[in-house]
Each structure stands twice: as C-alpha cells, then as structure tokens.
Amino acid sequence: MSTRFTPGASDLADRAAWLAERLPEALRPLAPLAYNYRWSWARDGDRVFRDLDPFRWELAGRNPARFLADLWPSSMAEAVRDDALLERIAALAAEVDADLSRPDDPRPGIDGPVAFLCAEYGVHASLPIYSGGLGVLAGDILKEASDQRLPLVAVGLFYRRGFFHQRLDLAGRQQEFWIVNDPKTLPMARVSGPDGRALKLAIQVFGGTTWFQVWRVDVGRTPLYLLDTEVPENDPVRRWTTQRLYEGNRATRLAQYALLGIGGVRTLEALGIEPAVYHLNEGHPTLGVLELASQLVSEGASADEALATVRDRFVFTTHTPVPAGNETYGVDELLAAYGDLPGRLGIDADRFVGLCRVRPDDDGEAPGLTPLALRTSRARNGVSRLHGDVARRMWQPLYPDRGVEDVPIGHVTNGAHLPTFASRPLVELFDRHLGERWWERAADRALWEGVWGIPNAELWEARGRARRELIEWARLKSQNDRLLRNEQIDYVNAAAKALDPDHLTLGFARRLATYKRLWLLTHDERRTVRILTGEPPAQLLIAGKAHPLDESGKGVLQNVFNLKKHNQGIAGRVVFLEDYDLSVATHLVSGCDVWINLPRRPMEASGTSGMKATFNGVLQLSVLDGWWDEGFDGKNGWGIPGTEDPDHAVMDARDAAAFYDLLEREVIPLFYDRDADGVPHGWCDRIKRSLATNAWRFSASRMLADYAEHVYPRDQR
User: Fold this and answer.
1) DSSP state of 107
2) What is the radius of gyration, based on Cα positions, of the chain?
3) Residue 538 is part of a domain; what is its CATH number?
4) Nearest C-alpha neighbor of 615 from the set 447, 419, 475, 471
5) What does the DSSP 8-state code read for residue 621?
6) Using CA of residue 364, residue 378, residue 334, residue 339, what is the dihedral sign?
C-alpha cells in the first residue's frame, strides 16, 4: 500500500488548493509544497520561501502555510517579476514531486506498512509538538522512511499548546509560557470520514468517553496522524488531554497514553490501514497492545491467546534508563484511568496490574507502562550499544530465568537525518569531494573515506564560514533575548560585540535534566573563568530548558546564567540562548567547533545532538556514554571515561577535572596550532577522522536500515 494515498491526503490537497487560490498563478506551485514538510530537507527549500520575504518568513516561524497566507501583495508582485526566483520555485516543486512519485520499496518480511507510535515528533520548528531528543529522533525516522521509500505511517498527539517556551528573568530564573497552536495556520488538515465530515472517534478513560478528531501532516512520503481532543463533545477536562506535551498533571498524562495507544490503534483501523508491525517508540503508546488483544477476546480468544497473537505484531524501543522516563503509578491511579481494560481482556484487576509490573505478584511494586511494553512485544531494543547493556541489567528481573547476557533486549543505535542537519558550508564542501548525490549514500562507510582527500585549507574555510554564520545569528538572538527580559540597553548593545567569529567556540545544548550535569561546566568556577578569559581564547554557547516541575534543574541553570555577573571578564565569551528548540539546535550543531556532553554515565541512552554536530565537522568532547561510547576511537574527538561510582560527588569532581584538563591541555592548543597560512592541520585531520569513522555509522540511513532488516520483519525474534 502506498502511504502517499492513505486517508487524509485529499483533505491536505484541499487545504493546498485553498491556499493556491490566494496566490498569483506563478506562485501557486508553492501551495502544495507548503503542505508537505519534504521542502524542509530539500537543498533550496528554506531559501526559496525565505527569499520571498525574509522578514515575514522568520515572523511566521518558517511555517510556509502561515507565511504564504499572510504574504503582502507587494511581496507577491515582486516575486512574480523575479525570473530567477520563479525558476527556483519550479525546480523545487519538480524535485519534491519527483521524490513523492517514486514507488514504495517494501522490505522482505514486512507484509504491510509499519505503524510508528510516539508521544512527540520533532519534524520542524514550525510544528511545535516535541520536547527534545525523543521527538527529534521520531521526526528523523519519518524523514528517513520517506527517503528510503519504506511504507510507514505515524501516529501521535496534536498538542494545542505544545511544549513550553522559555524566558529567563533578570535573575536568571526560568519562566515558562505556552502559545496556542492554531491548526488553521499549520501545514495540516483534519481527516474526513466516508461521509465527508470530520472523522471523530472515541475511547473510554477515567470512566467516561473521550472523543477525538484526527489531523494529517505529510512528512515527505510519510503521513503523520495527530489525535486531538479539542472537540465540542468533550468537557473542559477531556479537552485538556491534548493541550500540553508532558503535562505535569498525572491524570492528564494517563489520559494521553490511553489516547495515543488505544486511540492510535482505533484510528488506523478506522482509516483502513492494516500495519504489518507496530513500533512503540517508548512506553507511552503501549496500551495499543491491549486494545488489539481485547478485540480478539471479544471474538472468543482467551486473554493469553490474544496477548500471544498480538505480541507478534509489536516491537518496542526503550530510550532511557532514567526513572522519570519509565514512569510508575499507584494501583488506584491506574485502575481509575483504565478500569474498563481488565473486563475487555477477560482478566481481573490484579492480573491487569501485574502485566504492568516487573514482578507481577509484588504488591509493593508500582506499575508502569514500560514493563507492559517489554512483556507484550516480540522485539525490544535500546538506542545504543551501551544502553542495550544497561537495559538488560535494568530489566533482568522481568526475566528471572535468564542471566543478564540472555535478557532479550538488543540495541539499534540512534542516527540523525543528515539532509536536515548538515549545514550549507559543509554540504557544498562534500559536493565538491564526495561525488554526485553523495547524501543518498550516507550510510556507506566507503563514501566517507573520501573526506581524507579534502585539502585541509578547504575544510578549514568551510568550518570558518559555519562558525561565522553561527556567531552572527547568536549575536542577534542574544540581543533579542536581552530585550525581552528587560536588560539595560548598554548590556543589550554589548551582545552585538559578544563572541568572536575566529575564536574556538564550544557548544552545550540539551534538555537540562539533572543527569546531563550542566553544572560541570562551572564545577571549578575559578578554572572555568581562567579558561574562558585566558589566551588563546575560548567562548561558550549554552542552550537548554529545565522541565517546569524540575526545580533543581532551574537552579542549576540560574547559577550558570549568573556566572557572568560575578565574573565580568567572561561576559563577552559566554552566551545563554533562550528557548532551545530545533531552530536553535540547527544553528548550534552547524557552527560550534566542539560539542560538549557531560552526562553521568550510564544515564545518557544515546544523545543524538552530537551526531548532528559530527555531520558538520564539529568535534566531540564528551563522557563515554550513549552513542559516544561506541563512536570514540581515541583520535576522532575527546572522551571522558566517566567511570561509574556510587558516590556521585566523587564521580562529578573527577569528570569535571578530566573535562578541564582536556580543554586546557589538548583541545585549545590543537585548535590554535596553525601553519603560516593559518590552517590547523592537526585539528582538520581530527575532523576528517571523525567524519570517516562516525558520519556513516550514526546516520538515520543506517539506523532505519537496521530496523527494517533486523527488527521489523516478523521472522525476527
């Protein structure tokens, strides 16, 4: 079945046609482009829209549907007179249409589409229904499935307020606010039923009926269906179910998981889509297993027979060993939310709760969805080699008759979508040296051996361009951030001169969960100041959000933010960039020289931001956790052992000292070790080794191929 023509496609086409009618004829090819995110990873996609009106493109949040609908008549008239721009529009439309017109490429052992279920999707900054790495990874899988023509459909939730936006006050304290996402202005369409009206379905949760509608977003060839409870049939509490991602209210989260899992399965059935396999990306959608099993029970199967049958259709990826990522609930909470499920499965409440425990009969153990997912899926995997090891140790009690090494949890190391995150300076460099359409062979190890033939002077010039573009952008954003928090104008103006496009630029950007250890950057404050105010110079860009309920994370952020207040000498060399999102991340992974990651091993399951930086010739300075544990070879970046220690204070002090030592003794000297022409050959050689060893290995191309070959086929156990 071609995913291009699954239900909802005509609804999107109608939206595009509506938009086209409001554009001059010469610009009408942009309308269907605006309603498919395939433009976002086309070479000229972003620039084609931007060049119509750069200011309004940014004002619209780079959302093409909103941008074109609001475009000034004068801008349209000017574009129509620009023959070169019209040629680029036609070329972009032809490129996307040719890509979408290719036939599907079914894989052996996968006798139908893959259904991918996830709580968040980071497809593009203009669709703010993601929080961090889990969502961006999900978005990359959708894009890569489109590129590889793998039949895949995705299901998620349409969060009317998305994830929170961040502002810091003058004291450096994080403040949160939410912006309502209006579907009318987004590149999406409400899916119609056979009668032509909006499709509406329902689930039972918390003893009542919750209705929902379905929206479709196209990510290249991959349709993404988003479920939404903002319908008149629901009361305010039930409407709130899909308002905010990772809502702090526990009851709302339980309702979200029912909607995603049970509602997701019902949505695919209502649309006539019969998946060959369901891929549960984290435990949030796991109730979908029980929904399918309950249907078999209603047809006469026993609960055991039904669970055994549907188990063959589910695979599960666990993304974190952190307790917050494997949430548990009280028995009363679980039964209050899902009280109808035991009866529909033909089992009692104790058996149902036991399915959600590691030890089913342990009344002292709080139930959760991760044990349920592990127990009811035929294949399970972590997201890096090390995480696979950690997951087997962590979940071994669920398999008491097996040793740790025999626990049936494998790994598929994450990857990142290269066309999305490779910056223009590096792409143009690779165009000259890696051959025609090199990006289509991103997972080919032999391709990346070609980087050894790139002259160091050319590589250094490309890296310099990327850094200069980052610094120019960071200065403007920093000025805007300071104005928004009401800083003094002198301090605002100082941002225009902060940072230096020729200085070693360090980047640290991620969710500010406690185990990420942002505070290690300033663990020894005097040494931090010495490094950042000394010669040769180094500068640091920081971005990240703490969860609204994470007071510890907010406190760490405040302390790091206020470092410059106590040490005026580093004010021009440290910049915190507010409201970290995909747009901010794309700039940072493109232009920094060194990507810093300091998790407390082994809590970082994967960590994909460093992979994106690698595509851009950025070197890693990271604890050997997650992907870097298998990516580091001793010469392609820098590794901090991060040896585990039950005394976290000792562990933190040791890792911080190793971080400072590497910066002072190796990283900074190597960056500034130049020849007469200003080229740091040792640094460039390390970049080449990083690209040759890691670019192919940590691409989404390799990752999806692993899933398609080793996880999705039904004969895999």
Assistant:
1) -
2) 25
3) 3.40.50.2000
4) 419
5) E
6) negative
Q: Do 43 and 102 meet the contact criterion of CB atoms below 8 Å apart?
A: no
Smallest CA-to-CA distance from 372 within 248, 261, 209, 242 is with 261
Q: Which domain holds residue 539?
A: 418-698
Q: What are the pLDDT digits (tens) for 27-74?
A: 999 999 999 999 999 999 999 999 999 999 999 999 999 999 999 999
The answer for residues whose C-beta is within 8 angstroms of residue 573's C-beta and 6 or more apart is 498, 499, 503, 532, 533, 537, 538, 539, 540
- Shared domain for 375 and 492, answered yes or no, is no
Edge-first strand order for the sheet with 594-597 is 574-577, 538-543, 504-509, 594-597, 619-623, 638-640
If one counts every other C-beta atom within 10 angstroms of the C-beta of residue 604, the result is 33
Taking alpha carbons only, the member of 122, 128, 22 closest to residue 67 is 22
Closest Cα partner for 374 from 336, 410, 332? 410
Peptide bond preceding 371: is omega within 30 degrees of 0, i.e. cis?
no
Name the token pair of 255.
Answer: 């309702």
- Please tell me whether residues 372 and 492 are part of one structural domain: no
Match 């941002």 to its residue by tokens.
Answer: 495
At 481-508, the pLDDT tens digits run 999 999 999 989 988 988 999 999 999 9
Q: Are residues 427 and 455 in the same domain?
A: yes
Distance, in Å, from the CA atom of 174 to the CA atom of 600, rounded to the nearest integer, reads: 23
The pTM (predicted TM-score) of the whole model is: 0.96
